[in-house]
Known about the structure:
The longest helix has 35 residues. The protein has 35 helices and twelve strands. The chain has a six-stranded mixed sheet, with helices on both faces. It has a two-stranded antiparallel ribbon with strand order 1-2. It is mainly α.
Amino acid sequence: MVAGEDExxxxxxxxxxxxxxxxxSAADFVRSLVRLKRWxxxxxxxxxxxxxxxxxxxxxxxxxxxxxxxxxxVLRQTDRLxxxxxxxxxxxxxxxxxxxxxELIPGELERWRVARTALAGxxxxxxxxxxxxxxxxxxxxxxxxxxxxVSAAVAxxxxxxxxxxxxxxxxxxxxxxxxxxxxxxxxxxxxDRPGRDHAAELLARRVAxxxxxxxxxxxxxxxxxxxxxxxxxxPIHLDDAGGEMKDGPRSIGRFFTDLHPQRLLIVGESGxxxxxxxxxxxxxxxxxxxxxxxxxxxxxxxxxxxxxxRWTLGSxxxxxxxxxxxxxxGLTAKDAERLVRDRQVLPVLDGLDELDxxxxxxxxxxxxxxxxxxxxxxxxxxxxxxxxxxxxxAARHTELSLxxxxxxxxxxxxxxxxxxxxxxxxxxxxWPDGHPCDIHRDGLHAALSGPSGRAVHAALATPWRLxxxxxxxxxxxxxxxxxxxxxxxxxxxxxARIARRLLGAYVPAAxxxxxxxxxxxxxxPEQVRSWLENLAAHLRWQAxxxxxxxxxxxxxxxxxxxxxxxxxxxxxxxxxxxHCLCCVIFAVVAMLAFWAGSAVDRPGDPxxxxxxxxTLSLMAGWVVIATGLSMSQWPTAAGGRANVPRRRRVIGxxxxxxxxxxxxxxxxxxxxxxxxxxxxxxVFAIAAGAAGGAVFGAVIGLTAAARQGxxxxxxxxxxxxxxxLLGFGLCGALTGLPPLRLAGAGPVALTAEIIGAFALAxxxxxxxxxxxxxxxxxxxxxxxxxALHRNPMIGVAFGLTGGVAAFLVFxxxxxIVQSLACALVGGVTFGLAFGAVAWSRTMIGLIIAAARxxxxxxxxxxxxxxxxxxxxxxxxxxxQFRHRELQDFLTPSEPD
Length: 896
């Protein structure tokens, strides 16, 4: 059978594929892709991914041409043309799936290419509707309009959540590959588009990843109840079924884009959905960055959501903003300052009300200070107010209004209470027919519509309270008991009682719904509540410390649970005393290991008095420095984790070893000259020096390979940890003394050795600090414990590399086994005393806290479980309570 007969049979057995040339707009073109998928037999996303093959990015990384998240997202968006590389892979995969003749696929691809090229010009956009048009409902029955709007809101929320998660998933994939994914394309669009700011793209991807994680942590996989907002002064509420329909999360991006100036203040009650609305705004504004859909000639700002509680009183806003970009998202200091200066960043400050403690003892001083800074923040011209978004609780906003403090030139919107119809629609979505809890829908509706309905509605009028209710009911709680209203005519008091009942039921309900999956017995609700109360009390203590000092340590806020700042829970004085004692012990053990390994002491030898005195002085100085480090008030652990290909690490290690070997050999020859060849010969000098240098170089090369982006400067490294670097220098000088003492060197040689070895060790310490500090362009957003976990690893790694140098010195005068034992003991204790101060302080504090029953011994396991149970959530590199209302509820009252 010839090819023409095959084609005729195919045409007879299968209808013609959709014709893309009929598409008259980007939306029509995307619908043609959807029809092609349907025509091909509805291949799954996984099947399309395998049939689409793989492509190679600009940095040599091989990736799937049709990731599932990308495919699903592109088929949902209708306002922009997909990239040609995606269209080519998608069309090819669909034809392959239905066994379309391979020789006909190139012709079909050409049809799609021509159709897309014809539409590649500017896509006309429908002008935004005026406020009157957007807010005027059609002339239909009000009840039907309300039901339709609520159903559409729930469906749209689900679609938006999935779409934004997919966009963020693309960003995550791009971050893990270390740069913007630039797939080779034959389309003119890839070359005609003006170059975009690399730092802005990098920031956009990392923000997308973080916001996607934050959204999942808040919603727990469910769409929220349909939140609605409107002008702050609008008196209309949605209790009236015939009232105006308000905007919702799906329209917040368009709403903000239409503002002039782009300054927005989001006000709402506790639990009304302010943070979720801010997240939705960020994700919607990020979409053009992640999909390449920004309009030419219209510079796009990267929205970045930051916790307002992290701002410190008196800090200028722009330097603080740049510092947050560098610290939280790993931009270089120069790039962060440039993006802020050029107004390429849209700050979204979440939680203005959390700056000052509650209940307020006077005007909210810190919130007023931040608003003052924001009112000074201008656009590039310096003549108009700069773009910014702020969220605030209604009660705090009222306090600020009383003292005439506010965000100037800002549009204020208010998040409205949920209506009964919206609540019922949410329950139908979460508990559809056949769900074990669908029998409770009518009961909750009856409670909302009954004699006590006003109090019940007031208690459930926010998404957060509604979530508390459904979580408790799903765990087996009786909804009638939860929503019981005593004989009390005061609606507000009755609603407050219901709210406290729901908050009290949340911890047991979450514990029951998320049984501990790891090894060990399940947590008991009373245990969980006790530990959470202690964490909440610690946050109250952090809030007090924040107000008492102008420069609190980074991460210390009223809402952030930072692992390396948890040690005070065990008792400040007690923990610091034990930590100091442990560090002294580590330092003394390290020095004893060095003393035993060097074995050069000749008691009573008058010729060695200078060498012995110098050795003891250097050892004593090192112990003093280690003790001083242990007494620092707030040891820090910082730095992002790098997801670096093994090949790059191996190459970096090899280059480091090749560079370090000759340097080490040169140092060995220098020692040969200083000892005049009395202790070792040239072969040992070259071999031992090259081996030690290669080990140092390999370790530095391995870490440097992960730092493709920002590197600390020498001055920054010295300023960061001057005392630690001084200790490194003393250890270098100490390591170089034994060979000269064995050779009976004089004062000149000893002095030259101390100066040279000190300078070399100090320089190596600076180099190691540069390669292990800062961020990488390949860095993932750090997990809250990542920096703390890296702290002992880096410290011990550097200690062991120093142990290699010590071993080469010890073996001159000792056996191999004894030298190895002394080098290992000395290296590990040196690393713990010098390089793992934050880790050791934290571990000691948590062990003491566990011994006192304040926290569990396996705290990290508990924190991870609490996030899975939706009691806590991860926010950047910190943990936070799921909601501030839950934190306040669990915070024990202060003793009189």
